[in-house]
Every structure is written in C-alpha cells, then in structure tokens.
C-alpha cells in the first residue's frame, strides 16, 4: 500500500493549522507514519507463518491464532493512522469551499480563506474532536482485543479442534511489545496535543468574543 496520499493530506493541512496542530502533524508523520512504513510493518509481516503450536493437529494452529489475534495489530495500527488523519480533510474541504465561493462571486469574501474563524473554526474544532475520539477508541480496542498492552511469549490454547491444551509461541514478542508501547505512547501524546489545541482555540475565541462584547457595551 502506498502512503503517499496520507503524506500529501498532512502536508496540505499543515498550511491551515495552529502551532500545536503543526506539532501534531510532525509527530503523526515522523513518529507514526514513517515508523510504521520503515520498521513496524516488517515486524508483523510473517506473524501467522511464525506462530507455532506444539501439535500437528490440522486446523488447531489457525484456530488458536485467530483466537489470540482476532485482528492483526499492524492492520489495526494502519486503520488507526488512516482514521485519525482523515478528519483533517474536513478543514481542507472547507478552505476549498471558501476559495471556490470567492471565485464564483468574483470578490474577496474572507480576509483569508485559510484563517480559522467563523464556520472554519467550527469545522476545525469538529476535526479535533473526531481525531481525539478515534485515538481513544483505538486505544480501548487494542486493550480489549489483546488483554492489555502486552505481547506474551507463550499462550495456552484448548479450543477445538486442538486435542488438548496446547502451547503456542508468538514470534518476536519483545520487539512487538516495544512497538506496541511506542504506539500507545505516541497516541497518548497526540491526544494531549489535540485536547490542548481544542482548549487553546476555545479559550482564544472566547476571549475574542468577550472583548468584542465589552467594546460594544463601552461604546
């Protein structure tokens, strides 16, 4: 899969982001997307082939693997990256709508099409809420699906068609656990940045509205 479209999306959003938003984009691009493409993807590349159980019973190994890994961790991480990044499209579309509206009316309707105010501010806030929501949902999913943020070396499986409780061994558990911790840490940092940016924008425009109201009363 080519991740070029996600890189282009993040580059486009960077023009309309606040300072905190640009830090979020840098973390997503450098510490999540590049780490996924360059290193993490290869760690999970042959996870099914390297999953071994101490039995030759046909079907047992597949059933046990499906039980302990109902969704591949690396595919879930990829889905998280996509869903966390796509709310930024709302901002890009809104700016494009503003620019198109100015062209149709052939006049300047906004001080700047990319300035975060009015309707674009609402769109930006919604995108931040969606991104934060997706981050939290995926962290909960990881925790629930894999019984915590850990990768065990050995799992015991007694599901049919296994003849009895068999021992199954997961390949490269330490390496996978390191990447899983890295994923959780970067997700946590991104949540903090999103909440900080959300609070900053709400505070900034609350002060702005209060100042305008106060000025009108003074006049």
From TrEMBL:
<feature type="domain" description="Connexin cysteine-rich">
    <location>
        <begin position="134"/>
        <end position="201"/>
    </location>
</feature>
<dbReference type="InterPro" id="IPR019570">
    <property type="entry name" value="Connexin_CCC"/>
</dbReference>
<feature type="transmembrane region" description="Helical">
    <location>
        <begin position="77"/>
        <end position="97"/>
    </location>
</feature>
<keyword id="KW-1133">Transmembrane helix</keyword>
<protein>
    <recommendedName>
        <fullName>Gap junction protein</fullName>
    </recommendedName>
</protein>
<dbReference type="Pfam" id="PF00029">
    <property type="entry name" value="Connexin"/>
</dbReference>
<dbReference type="InterPro" id="IPR017990">
    <property type="entry name" value="Connexin_CS"/>
</dbReference>
<comment type="function">
    <text>One gap junction consists of a cluster of closely packed pairs of transmembrane channels, the connexons, through which materials of low MW diffuse from one cell to a neighboring cell.</text>
</comment>
<feature type="transmembrane region" description="Helical">
    <location>
        <begin position="21"/>
        <end position="39"/>
    </location>
</feature>
<feature type="transmembrane region" description="Helical">
    <location>
        <begin position="118"/>
        <end position="143"/>
    </location>
</feature>
<keyword id="KW-0303">Gap junction</keyword>
<dbReference type="InterPro" id="IPR000500">
    <property type="entry name" value="Connexin"/>
</dbReference>
<keyword id="KW-1003">Cell membrane</keyword>
<dbReference type="GO" id="GO:0007267">
    <property type="term" value="P:cell-cell signaling"/>
</dbReference>
<keyword id="KW-0812">Transmembrane</keyword>
<feature type="domain" description="Connexin N-terminal">
    <location>
        <begin position="42"/>
        <end position="75"/>
    </location>
</feature>
<dbReference type="GO" id="GO:0005243">
    <property type="term" value="F:gap junction channel activity"/>
</dbReference>
<dbReference type="InterPro" id="IPR013092">
    <property type="entry name" value="Connexin_N"/>
</dbReference>
<keyword id="KW-0472">Membrane</keyword>
<comment type="subunit">
    <text>A connexon is composed of a hexamer of connexins.</text>
</comment>
<comment type="similarity">
    <text>Belongs to the connexin family.</text>
</comment>
<dbReference type="InterPro" id="IPR038359">
    <property type="entry name" value="Connexin_N_sf"/>
</dbReference>
<dbReference type="GO" id="GO:0005922">
    <property type="term" value="C:connexin complex"/>
</dbReference>
<feature type="transmembrane region" description="Helical">
    <location>
        <begin position="178"/>
        <end position="203"/>
    </location>
</feature>
<keyword id="KW-0965">Cell junction</keyword>
């Amino acid at each position: 899969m080519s991740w070029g479209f996600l890189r282009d999306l993040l580059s486009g959003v960077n023009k309309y982001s606040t300072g905190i938003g640009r830090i979020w984009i840098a973390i997503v691009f450098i510490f999540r997307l590049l780490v996924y493409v360059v290193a993490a993807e290869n760690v999970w590349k042959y996870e099914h082939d390297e999953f071994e159980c101490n039995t030759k019973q046909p079907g047992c190994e597949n059933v046990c693997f499906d039980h302990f890994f109902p969704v591949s961790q690396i595919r879930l991480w990829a889905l998280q990256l996509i869903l966390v990044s796509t709310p930024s499209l709302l901002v890009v579309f809104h700016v494009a709508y503003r620019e198109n509206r100015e062209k149709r009316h052939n006049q300047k309707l906004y001080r700047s099409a990319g300035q975060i105010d009015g309707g674009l501010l609402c769109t930006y806030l919604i995108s931040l809420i969606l991104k934060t929501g997706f981050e939290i949902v995926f962290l909960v999913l990881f925790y629930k699906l894999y019984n915590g943020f850990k990768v065990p070396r050995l799992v015991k499986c007694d599901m049919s068609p296994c003849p009895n409780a068999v021992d199954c061994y997961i390949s490269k558990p330490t390496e996978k656990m390191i990447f899983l911790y890295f994923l959780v840490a970067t997700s946590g940092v991104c949540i903090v940045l999103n909440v900080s940016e959300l609070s900053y924008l709400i505070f900034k425009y609350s002060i702005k509205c209060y100042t305008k109201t106060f000025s009108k009363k003074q006049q």
